[in-house]
Amino acid sequence: MTDPSPGPRPGDPRPPEQRPVAALRADVEEAVAGLDDLDGRPVADHPAAFERVHAALGRALSAGSERG
Protein backbone atom coordinates (compact mmCIF):
# COMPACT_ATOMS: atom_id res chain seq x y z
CA MET A 1 0.00 0.00 0.00
CA THR A 2 1.33 3.44 -0.86
CA ASP A 3 1.12 6.51 1.28
CA PRO A 4 -1.28 9.15 0.01
CA SER A 5 0.40 12.07 -1.66
CA PRO A 6 0.45 15.32 0.28
CA GLY A 7 -2.04 17.99 -0.68
CA PRO A 8 -1.13 21.20 -2.42
CA ARG A 9 1.48 23.31 -0.72
CA PRO A 10 0.74 26.95 -0.07
CA GLY A 11 2.42 29.23 -2.55
CA ASP A 12 2.64 32.90 -3.29
CA PRO A 13 -0.63 34.43 -2.04
CA ARG A 14 -0.64 37.17 -4.70
CA PRO A 15 -2.96 36.77 -7.68
CA PRO A 16 -1.09 35.25 -10.66
CA GLU A 17 -1.15 38.51 -12.62
CA GLN A 18 0.84 40.19 -9.81
CA ARG A 19 3.41 37.44 -9.36
CA PRO A 20 6.88 37.43 -10.86
CA VAL A 21 7.35 35.19 -13.88
CA ALA A 22 9.93 33.16 -11.93
CA ALA A 23 7.32 32.29 -9.29
CA LEU A 24 4.85 31.19 -11.96
CA ARG A 25 7.54 29.09 -13.63
CA ALA A 26 8.39 27.50 -10.27
CA ASP A 27 4.70 26.60 -9.77
CA VAL A 28 4.61 24.87 -13.17
CA GLU A 29 7.90 23.07 -12.57
CA GLU A 30 6.71 21.86 -9.16
CA ALA A 31 3.44 20.58 -10.60
CA VAL A 32 5.22 18.80 -13.46
CA ALA A 33 7.71 17.28 -11.01
CA GLY A 34 4.71 15.75 -9.26
CA LEU A 35 4.29 13.53 -12.33
CA ASP A 36 7.74 11.95 -11.90
CA ASP A 37 6.57 9.24 -9.52
CA LEU A 38 3.13 8.81 -11.02
CA ASP A 39 3.82 5.29 -12.25
CA GLY A 40 4.35 4.18 -8.66
CA ARG A 41 1.08 5.63 -7.42
CA PRO A 42 -2.45 4.24 -7.70
CA VAL A 43 -4.30 5.10 -10.90
CA ALA A 44 -6.91 6.85 -8.78
CA ASP A 45 -4.26 9.47 -7.88
CA HIS A 46 -3.42 10.24 -11.52
CA PRO A 47 -6.28 12.67 -12.33
CA ALA A 48 -5.42 14.92 -9.38
CA ALA A 49 -1.77 15.04 -10.45
CA PHE A 50 -2.72 16.04 -13.98
CA GLU A 51 -5.22 18.58 -12.67
CA ARG A 52 -2.43 20.24 -10.65
CA VAL A 53 -0.33 20.57 -13.81
CA HIS A 54 -3.29 21.85 -15.80
CA ALA A 55 -4.12 24.44 -13.13
CA ALA A 56 -0.50 25.64 -12.84
CA LEU A 57 -0.22 25.99 -16.61
CA GLY A 58 -3.53 27.83 -16.76
CA ARG A 59 -2.45 30.29 -14.07
CA ALA A 60 0.87 30.93 -15.82
CA LEU A 61 -0.74 31.40 -19.23
CA SER A 62 -3.43 33.70 -17.83
CA ALA A 63 -0.87 35.83 -16.05
CA GLY A 64 1.27 36.03 -19.18
CA SER A 65 -1.61 37.15 -21.38
CA GLU A 66 -2.59 39.85 -18.90
CA ARG A 67 0.94 41.24 -18.78
CA GLY A 68 1.33 41.62 -22.53
Briefly note the structural class of the backbone: mainly alpha
**SSE sequence, one letter per element:** HH
Shape: elongated
Low-pLDDT residue spans: none
Compute the average pLDDT.
Answer: 79
Count of separate DSSP helical elements: 2
In helices, the fraction of residues equals 40-55%
* Termini gap: 47 Å
Described by strand count, sense and barrel closure, the largest sheet is:
none
Computed over alpha carbons, the radius of gyration is 13 Å
Strand content: under 5%
What is the strand tally? 0
List the helices and strands and how they pair.
Elements lengths: L20 H13 L12 H22 L1
Fold and architecture overview:
The protein is mainly alpha-helical and 68 residues long. The protein contains two helices and no strands. It has helices at residues 21-33, 46-67. Helix 1 (21-33) packs antiparallel against helix 2. The longest helix has 22 residues, at 46-67. The chain is elongated, with a radius of gyration of 13 Å. It starts with 20 loop residues before the first helix and ends with a helix. The model has no long low-confidence stretch (mean pLDDT 79).
Summarize the structure.
The chain is mainly alpha-helical and 68 residues long.
